[in-house]
Structure formats: C-alpha cells, structure tokens
C-alpha cells in the first residue's frame, strides 16, 4: 500500500502479445517524477531501446494520471497518453497527448495510477478493467466502427457509468494524425496516439468504476486552496476569460435552435475557458440526411479555415457536421482544420498539387494568412473536404493512403519539403500560437514560444505556449484587449520569471531576444507540472493578475495543491526541480532516438515567414543568429551540451537520473 496520498499505488502492465499482466508499484516513480507524464516517460524509457520505432510491439502505450485526478482540486482530472508518437517528424519522438473527461479518476477508482500496454494482439481486442479483473476481449465486431458507435456498443454492454475511449477507422488504419476519442467532446488529439493504439490491434479501453479511495493528505487545506483558486479564476487571472458562476446552462446560441447546454471539460472543472457547448439535432448537409448531436468547441468549430470561411447560417451547421465527422472517424481536428489544408493550399499556389483524389482543385489564392496574405481559409469545397477526410481515414486510394502519413511525409514523397516547412516546419506539426496563419501574436511572444517549439516533440501548447503566448496576449490591453498594460509586463516578469525582459521587446526591439530563454524554461517546467499533477492547461499557470501591484498572478498555486493532496512540504523550487527532471527524461529519450541540435533548429525556417501582427514596432521575422544565441543560453542553463543538444552526465546525475545517464553512455550518446 502506498504511503503517499493522491496516488492509488499500482501501475498495470498488459502485454497484448501473450495476454499476460503485471502490477508495478507507483511509489517506485513518485513523487520524484510527480505523476502523469513524468511517470509515463519513465515507463517508456524502461521499455524501449534506440532501435524501437513507433509501430514496434514493444513501444509502450501508457495512459497515466497524477495525484490531483479524482480530488476536488479545481480544474484537475486529465489523463495523458505517452509513447513514441507516430506523428513526430523526422522521427517518432516520444510525446504525450492529454485527454479530459472522467477517464482518469475512473482508472484510479479501480486502483491504478497508470495502464501500460505493450505487444500486439493477433486479432482486434478491447480491454475491460475493473477492481476484480483485467479482461482482454474480442473486438472483431467493432473493428471498422466509428468511435461513437463503438462507444455506444460498449456502454450498452458494460453500463452507462463506464469510462470508455476508442479509436475510429483512422486509428485502425494507422493514420498518423488519428486520435483516441471519449464521448463527443474529449480526445487525445495530438501525437497520432490513435495510430499507436491501432498498431496494437486495440480498439478500446473500458474502465468500470470501482471503490478505491483517493486519499487527500490535508483535506481542509485542499478546500481552502480550491476556494482561493476558484475566486482567482472568477477574476479572469488565467487564460483571459473570467469565470462566470452565473452562466446559464441553457443559452441562445444559433438563435436558440440547437444549443442545449454548456459543460466543462473534465471532472473537477470549474469552468472551461473554451466553453464546451452541446448541440442537439443539427441537420446534416454533406455526411447524411439525418441530424446529429454532440459537443463542439475551440478548434472543433474551425472547419471554415479548411473550406469557405463562412461561419453563420447554414455554414454553422456544416461546421458542426464536419466537426462530428472528424470525431467519428477519429481524425485530429487541429491538423484537419488548421494544418494540412493550408499545406495543400500552399502547394496548389506553387503548382505542385493541382489535382487530388480525382478532383481538379480550385482553392483560395489569397491565403493562407502569412504576411502579406490576409485570408485564413484554404477554400476547399465542403463536399470535397468531407470526401478528403473520409478517404484519409480509410486510406482509400493512392492519395488517401499518402495523406494519411501527414504533411511532411507527403512532401517527402512528392519532393516538396520546402513547401511543407511553411506550415509543418516544427517537428511535423501545424501552426499554433506562433504568430502565423492564425493566432496573430507579436514578436516578444512568438520568440519565446519559438524557443519552446524548438525543444518540443509535438505542438507544445500544453507544455508552454498556451501558458506564455496565449495567456499574455489576451492579458495585455495593447495586444489582445486584456486588463493589464504592456508596461506591467516588466514588474510581472521580474517577479514571476526573475527577469523584467521576459515578455518585452515590443517597443524596444533591441530587447527582443534578451533573456527569452528564461521564460521558455520556466514554462516548460510548469508544463510538465500541468501534465504530471495533472491540472488544466487553460487555467494554469496563473502568471498574471489585476489584483496585485506587480500584476504577478498566483503562479505557485500548483505546488500548494500538490502538497495538500500528497502530503509533501515542497517549496516551489523543489517542484520546479522535479519538473526539470521530467524535462531531462524526455530529452534523454529523444537523444536515444537520435535527436541533436540540428533537429531543434528546424523551427528557424518556419519563423522566417512574416508574422501577421499589424502596426508592429518589432521585426516580423526571426533573426536566425540571435535566435541561435538564445538557444545557446538555453542549453547552458539546462546543463546540456551546446554543440549536440545532449544532456551531460553531470546534469542527469544531479537530478537523480543515474540509470538514464548510464543508458545514454552505453549508447554513446553523452557529450
């Protein structure tokens, strides 16, 4: 029995190849690795070698959570998938993919902090996990079903209170940008984890809720902190939208025709900063003749970027329809709506892709929105967009099979890599809070976000770029119309990051690269906290506030929650060190996979495209020399070798990662 609260004490290992199971002790990994993503990375490290690839049976797929899940900690409850990511480019870099809903606490309720799946079943299977047993059951009658139909079948069979997540046809067919879906609103979206699940012939997980208690070391302290943080959220001190406790469940969206209620994204969700709205009986125009229902929010509403940029009337119905199509077939909406269509559009404008899936293309010539172009939509006919997504999900035809591999591998096959770099030049992922295509942020923000992107393995929204670029853009009056002034960033930066130059350089471009590695490292650490405790990416860290003289927010909230739940008495610096340990573990796996500084620098070409920030005092493109110098300072502060980008043995041993240092030394991958 584990002595620490928050954790339930066991990790389940399932080998689908031989049908065996094994239980590991959570306390062998925590609190040093915090939980969640940190524990998942260590399980991956312990089960791969430098030859392991994404579809090797020994590549583990880990679903894990941390001590906050299943407690009243505000805006907690997420789970994380961890594994070698099929979407990564040029290698399947180890990555994570978060999912909300009720899955994490239901897994803990049956006694597990993580479930690791290795091996490959001979035929399609699904897992049924309960306190009493682990069952590997035949899924041949579900293989080929959409995510929602498979979920309905499993809920009918195992009870409406079960936690269920499934893959759709895209995951079954190893589409590198496929997802793992739960209900109509939760998905492990980035990373292609649906394909990793499909490579194991695993259709679904079913968690049957149990009675395992999730202990809290200091209940009164947790309630006190929960009240404090919720009050801060009401003041809008997180991502930029104040929580409205009076928000009605029924609203007048779409003139009251379809909107039924709004709902949060996770258990313990106080209020989703990107409101999740349930729509009912929306008519279909391109995918059938009936009606559909479900949740749509955030990028899920952005299919007009892919199509005709029409957002109202019938086209709002079409947007919802395409959203539900991607849910059902199991396709990453961000890639579909804000990624691969723009790659096709750029190739079309260069005369490289003029015909696709038997259709002559006629796309928008005035986009995508990288200066000096102004329009964000690709201009696909909605009917063709539906056909394209379906054929990709089923790998139908030569083009469907090719585009299932993702933009960078398509470009590799067609010899148009320079075009693909314009949209997918950052490890194979599409634009997101980088100042181009959408999310038009100014240079101080995209320089820091660019550094976070450089050292990432996937879109780093949940491990840094949301917390810095998105949050501060929306906070600052001159940028996103928020409640604090640009000049406040000096005092806020000094208190939170230890440098007043963290987000400055907008008025004085000579400060544009000054100290920018400091907030990049800080946000990588808070990102690891968020994915390991875990808590909400949209709420934490609370870097700014209107309620303090310095405008610094409650940026130490995470450690107080962690201590109240687990029973530790850690300082914020000690939690930062634990997060640093997780960062170095992730980096070590990347190095084992062949990562070098050259891979980090791949982002530079992307940021040489002009940003779209209007009337800016700053340069609109990156300065490669100054950016590389900022990277040098980053490596130095990390204790990594500047030439290779590899962690040193001294740094790894300082963090207690001696076995990792030994493994890299045996692979001749220490500087």
3D structure, described in words:
The structure is a single chain. This protein is of the alpha+beta class and 671 residues long. It has 3 domains: 10-207, 4-Layer Sandwich (Aldehyde Ferredoxin Oxidoreductase,  A, domain 1), CATH 3.60.9.10; 274-431, Aldehyde Ferredoxin Oxidoreductase Protein, subunit A, domain 2; 443-666, Aldehyde Ferredoxin Oxidoreductase Protein, subunit A, domain 3 (Orthogonal Bundle). 37% of the residues lie in helices and 12% in strands. A 6-stranded mixed beta sheet has the order 2-1-6-3-4-5. Helix 18 packs across helix 20 (572-592). It is globular. The relative contact order is 0.12. Residues 7-211 form the Aldehyde ferredoxin oxidoreductase N-terminal domain.
Secondary-structure map with pairings?
Elements: E1 10-15, E2 20-25, H1 36-47, E3 61-64, E4 79-84, E5 94-99, H2 103-109, E6 114-118, E7 125-129, E8 134-138, H3 147-158, E9 163-166, H4 169-172, E10 180-182, E11 186-188, H5 193-199, E12 202-207, H6 219-234, E13 259-263, E14 276-283, E15 291-296, H7 303-306, H8 314-329, H9 333-349, E16 355-356, E17 359-360, H10 382-393, H11 397-403, H12 407-414, H13 417-424, H14 443-454, H15 466-475, H16 477-480, H17 488-496, H18 517-532, H19 557-566, H20 572-592, H21 597-600, H22 603-607, H23 624-638, H24 649-654, H25 658-666
Helix pairs in contact: 1-20, 6-19, 8-10, 9-13, 10-11, 12-13, 14-15, 14-18, 18-20, 18-23
How many strands? Answer: 17
Identify the strand order in the major beta sheet. Answer: 2-1-6-3-4-5
What structural class do helix, strand and pairing data support? alpha+beta
Total helical elements: 25
Instruction: Report strand %.
Output: 5-15%
The CATH superfamily of the largest domain appears as: Aldehyde Ferredoxin Oxidoreductase Protein, subunit A, domain 3
Largest sheet: 6 strands, mixed
- What is the overall pLDDT average? 92
Shape by Cα distribution: globular
CATH overall fold name of the largest domain: Aldehyde Ferredoxin Oxidoreductase Protein, subunit A, domain 3
Rg, please?
Answer: 23 Å
Q: What's the number of structural domains?
A: 3
Assign the CATH architecture of the largest domain: Orthogonal Bundle
Unreliably modeled segments: none
Domain Aldehyde ferredoxin oxidoreductase N-terminal: 7-211
Keywords: 4Fe-4S, Iron, Iron-sulfur, Metal-binding, Oxidoreductase
Cofactor: tungstopterin; [4Fe-4S] cluster
Family: Belongs to the AOR/FOR family.
């Amino acid at each position: 029995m584990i002595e620490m609260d928050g954790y339930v004490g066991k990790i389940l290992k399932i080998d689908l190849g031989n049908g065996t199971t094994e239980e590991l002790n959570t306390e062998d990994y925590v609190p040093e690795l915090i939980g969640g993503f940190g524990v998942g990375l260590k399980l991956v490290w312990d089960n791969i070698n430098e030859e392991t690839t994404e579809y090797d049976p020994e590549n583990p797929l880990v679903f894990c959570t941390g001590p906050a899940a299943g407690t009243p900690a505000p805006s907690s409850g997420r789970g994380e998938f961890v594994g070698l990511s099929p979407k990564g480019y040029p290698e399947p870099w180890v990555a994570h993919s978060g999912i909300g809903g009720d899955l994490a606490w239901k897994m803990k309720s049956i006694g597990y902090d993580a479930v690791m799946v290795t091996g490959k079943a001979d035929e399609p299977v699904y897992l049924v996990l309960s306190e009493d047993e682990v069952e590997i059951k035949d899924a041949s009658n579900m293989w080929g079903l959409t995510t929602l139909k498979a979920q309905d079948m499993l809920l009918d069979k195992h009870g409406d209170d079960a936690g269920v997540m499934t893959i759709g046809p895209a995951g079954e067919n190893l589409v590198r940008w496929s997802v793992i879906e739960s209900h109509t609103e939760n998905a492990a979206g980035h990373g292609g984890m649906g394909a990793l699940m499909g490579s194991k012939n695993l259709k679904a997980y079913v968690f049957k809720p149990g009675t395992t208690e999730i202990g809290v070391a200091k209940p009164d302290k947790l309630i006190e902190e929960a009240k404090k943080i919720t009050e801060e959220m009401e003041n809008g001190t997180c991502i930029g939208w104040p929580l409205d406790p009076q928000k009605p469940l029924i609203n007048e969206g779409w003139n009251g025709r379809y909107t039924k209620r709004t709902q949060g994204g996770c258990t313990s969700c106080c209020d989703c900063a990107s409101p999740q709205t349930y729509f009912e009986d929306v008519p279909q125009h391109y995918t059938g003749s009936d009606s559909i229902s479900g949740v749509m929010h955030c990028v899920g509403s952005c299919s007009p970027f892919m199509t005709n940029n029409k957002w109202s009337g019938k086209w709002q119905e079409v947007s919802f329809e395409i959203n539900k199509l991607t849910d059902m077939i199991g396709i990453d909406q961000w890639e579909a709506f804000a990624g691969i269509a723009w790659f096709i559009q750029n190739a079309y404008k260069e005369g490289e892709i003029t015909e696709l899936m038997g259709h002559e293309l006629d796309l928008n010539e005035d986009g995508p929105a990288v200066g000096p172009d102004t329009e964000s939509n690709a201009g696909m006919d909605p009917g063709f967009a539906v056909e394209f997504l379906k054929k990709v999900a089923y790998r139908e035809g030569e083009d469907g099979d090719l585009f299932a591999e993702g933009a960078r591998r398509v470009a590799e096959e067609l010899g148009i890599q320079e075009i693909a770099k314009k949209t997918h030049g950052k490890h194979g992922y599409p634009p997101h809070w980088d100042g181009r295509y959408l999310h038009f942020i100014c240079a101080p923000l995209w320089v820091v976000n660019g550094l976070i992107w450089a050292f990432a393995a996937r879109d780093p929204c949940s491990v840094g770029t949301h917390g810095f670029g998105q949050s501060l853009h929306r906070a600052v009056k001159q940028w996103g119309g928020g409640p604090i002034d640009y000049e406040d960033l000096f005092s806020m930066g000094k208190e939170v990051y230890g440098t007043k130059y963290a987000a400055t350089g907008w008025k004085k471009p000579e400060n544009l690269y000054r100290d920018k590695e400091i907030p990049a490292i800080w946000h990588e650490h808070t990102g690891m906290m968020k994915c390991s405790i875990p808590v909400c990416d949209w709420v934490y860290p609370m870097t700014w506030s209107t309620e303090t003289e310095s405008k610094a927010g409650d940026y130490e909230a995470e450690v107080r929650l962690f201590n109240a739940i687990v029973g530790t008495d850690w300082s914020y610096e000690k939690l930062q060190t634990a997060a640093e340990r997780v960062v170095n573990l992730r980096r070590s796996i990347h190095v084992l996979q062949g990562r070098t500084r050259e891979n980090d620098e791949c982002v530079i070409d992307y940021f040489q495209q002009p940003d779209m920030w209007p009337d800016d005092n700053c340069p609109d493109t990156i300065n490669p020399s100054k950016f590389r110098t900022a990277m040098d300072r980053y490596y130095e502060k990390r204790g990594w070798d500047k030439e290779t980008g590899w962690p040193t043995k001294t740094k790894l041993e300082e963090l207690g990662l001696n076995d990792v240092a030994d493994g890299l030394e045996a692979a001749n991958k220490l500087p």
